[in-house]
Design brief:
Layout (H helix, E strand, L loop, with lengths): L6 H32 L14 H28 L2 H33 L7 H26 L4 H10 L2 H11 L9 E2 L2 E2 L3 H46 L1
Length: 240
């Protein structure tokens, strides 16, 4: 872990890993979504609307995985002061927010024919909406800290505090009465029929690779921006 905190080593790895993750993720997603949309039979109860499962579930997973990545990078920065950890947290914030928003949108589209309404204020939906607002707040806080020259410890602490929402999202359908169905996949077992489960897992893998590729690309861009600013400051000091 300490070795990859070196920017040169990280860039050498990310230079080939970024396109690999993006290309393989797009191919896997295309295959899984084609399978789910055209080959999987309609559900006995939900009919054709069940096909949004292959988008909604990966989006929900990656919204939570985005904040988990952000919180882990924040912890590494606070404990070990790794210079790339803060950049990793910032890089994960925007794609995490996008996937969370897509989760909310697809959930509303799925809820309209299933529940008869676009939105209900139950535990799962409300906690996911809170997660989206947390992403927006972190992006604003991290941007302000960079502009004002404030220590990145402040957004890192916020990233760790915000992780409290993750177990609430996970257990909300168990703790409170909810229109949302209970967990379908738990440790060692699944309530989803294999005809739906297999393309769902493949779709989740594909979107996860896309998420990883986007995070790596954003880290490379943020690192290039940081290095360019450092060179400009050094030249300004030499000129002065």
């Amino acid at each position: 872990m300490h070795g990859f905190a070196n920017p040169k080593r990280f860039l050498a790895l990310a230079r080939w890993l970024t396109p690999l993750c993006l290309a393989s993720g797009l191919l896997i997603c295309a295959g899984a979504l084609g399978w789910g949309l055209f080959e999987v039979p309609p559900d006995q109860l939900m009919g054709q609307t069940v096909r949004i499962l292959f988008l909604h579930v990966p989006f929900a997973w990656l919204g939570m995985a985005g904040w988990s990545t952000l919180a882990l990078c924040s912890m590494i920065f606070l404990v070990w002061r790794h210079p790339l950890a803060a950049l990793g947290a910032r890089a994960a914030a925007a794609p995490g927010a996008v996937f969370t928003a897509l989760c909310l949108i697809t959930g509303s589209i799925w809820g309209r024919p299933t529940w008869g309404t676009w939105w209900v204020w139950d535990g799962r939906l409300t906690s996911m909406l809170v997660l989206f607002f947390l992403f927006c707040a972190y992006i604003a806080l991290a941007g302000a800290a960079e502009r004002e020259g404030v220590s990145p410890r402040i957004p890192a602490i916020f990233g760790l505090v915000g992780a409290v929402n993750l177990p609430i999202i996970n257990r909300s359908v168990v703790w409170w009465n909810s229109l949302h169905q209970p967990p379908s996949i738990t440790m060692g077992k699944s309530a989803i029929d294999p005809v739906f489960l297999v393309p769902l897992l493949i779709s989740t893998l594909g979107f996860t690779l896309i998420f990883a590729g986007v995070v790596l690309a954003r880290m490379r861009a943020l690192l290039a921006h940081t290095q360019a600013e450092a060179r400009l400051r050094r030249k300004a000091m030499e000129a002065a």
